DNA sequence: ATGTCACAGTCCCTGTGA
């Protein structure tokens, strides 16, 4: 079973790339972020033609998360059920695995109200995960907008005082891990930076100026069944790429 | 000189968010 997470930075603008990627890689489940679409615009018919059931939690201009699955798609949940109008989390059960696609708030700056919102959002995610049925397989994937450690940052000296690296943000990830989840990519590749995002500006991709902020958290059972984890850097190349590359996990399921 | 991208409204340029 192949499960991917990918921030596509507008599914409208990225559809040709996404369609090509699905055909080339045949993932079973894809956790998508930043669709930037209303539900009316979401290409569910086109996905069905490719063999995927899908669920979308759309907003319009900003945010928007989705799940594509060839292994069934049931028990869809949208948001935390707390009235937050921002479409940043969708859950579903696919092939016996509970999956969540998360688009964690960016935070903007440490002294910005959006940073407070980011930390509150991560705490809410932790609280929801802490109450899950521990017997279930779960994958919590998405754009976390946080680097788990300095190994995930191309040059930590460039990020002093910035978001994505701060102690409270990293502590929020530790709290999520403490519910019994493991960062799959780092577990399988303890030394590989494995960046998943590069700024469009300054030729960042070409220069290797990346961050690892797109993560797949898995429960202990799935970790023991994991056979591979990788970043598809090719998806960041060529015509009209997203600024994020897909992160893939493979499991003996 | 943030050297880019995507979106929507002010609508073919500009402000916003990343």
Account of the 3D structure:
- The protein has 253 residues and is an alpha+beta fold.
- Helices cover 26% and strands 28% of the residues.
- The strands form 3 sheets. The protein has a 6-stranded mixed β-sheet with strand order 3-4-2-1-14-13. A 6-stranded mixed β-sheet has the order 5-6-7-8-12-9. The protein has a two-stranded antiparallel ribbon with strand order 10-11.
- A hairpin with a 7-residue loop joins strand 3 (53-57) and strand 4 (65-69).
- Helix 3 runs parallel beside helix 4 (167-177).
- It is globular.
- The chain binds one DNA strand of 18 nucleotides through loops.
Tell me the layout of helices and strands.
Blueprint: E1 2-7, H1 11-25, E2 29-33, H2 44-49, E3 53-57, E4 65-69, E5 74-78, E6 89-94, E7 97-103, H3 113-130, E8 137-143, H4 167-177, E9 181-183, H5 184-188, E10 197-198, H6 204-207, E11 210-211, E12 214-219, H7 220-225, E13 226-231, E14 247-251
Parallel strand pairs: 1-2, 7-8
Antiparallel strand pairs: 1-14, 2-4, 3-4, 5-6, 6-7, 8-12, 9-12, 10-11, 13-14
The protein binds one DNA strand of 18 nucleotides through loops.
Q: Residue share in helices?
A: 25-40%
Number of helical stretches of at least 4 residues = 7
- The portion of residues forming beta strands comes to 25-35%
Overall structural class, as computed from helix and strand content, comes to: alpha+beta
Which strand order do you get reading across the main beta sheet?
Answer: 3-4-2-1-14-13
Q: Averaged pLDDT, please?
A: 97
By DSSP, the count of extended strands is 14
What Rg do the Cα atoms give?
Answer: 17 Å
Order of helices and strands: EHEHEEEEEHEHEHEHEEHEE
Instruction: State the distance separating the first and last CA atoms.
Output: 5 Å
| Low-pLDDT residue spans | none
If you consult CATH, what is the topology? Deoxyribonuclease I, Chain A
Fourth CATH level, the homologous superfamily: Endonuclease/exonuclease/phosphatase
């Amino acid at each position: 079973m192949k499960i991917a997470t990918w921030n596509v930075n507008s599914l409208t603008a990225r559809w040709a790339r996404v369609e090509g990627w699905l055909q080339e890689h045949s993932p079973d489940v894809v956790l998508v972020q930043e669709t930037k679409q209303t539900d009316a615009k979401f290409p569910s018919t086109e996905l069905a033609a490719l063999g995927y059931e899908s669920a979308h939690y759309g907003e319009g201009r900003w945010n928007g998360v989705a799940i594509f699955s060839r292994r069934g798609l049931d028990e869809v949940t949208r948001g935390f059920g707390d009235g937050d109008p921002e479409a940043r989390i969708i859950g579903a059960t696919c092939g016996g695995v509970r999956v969540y696609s998360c688009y964690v708030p960016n935070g903007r700056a440490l002294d910005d109200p959006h940073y407070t919102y980011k930390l509150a959002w991560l705490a809410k995610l932790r609280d929801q995960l802490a109450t899950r049925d521990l017997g279930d397989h779960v994958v919590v994937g998405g754009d976390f907008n946080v680097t788990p450690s300095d190994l995930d940052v191309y040059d930590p000296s460039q990020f002093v005082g910035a978001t994505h690296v701060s102690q409270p943000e990293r502590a929020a990830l530790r709290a999520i891990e403490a519910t019994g989840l493991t960062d799959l990519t780092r577990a399988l590749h303890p030394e590989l930076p494995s960046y998943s995002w590069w700024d469009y500006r300054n030729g960042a991709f070409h220069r290797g100026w990346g961050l690892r902020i797109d993560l797949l958290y898995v429960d202990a059972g799935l970790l023991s069944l994991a056979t591979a984890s990788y970043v598809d850097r090719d998806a960041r190349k060529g015509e009209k790429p997203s600024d994020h590359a897909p992160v893939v996990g493979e499991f003996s399921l």
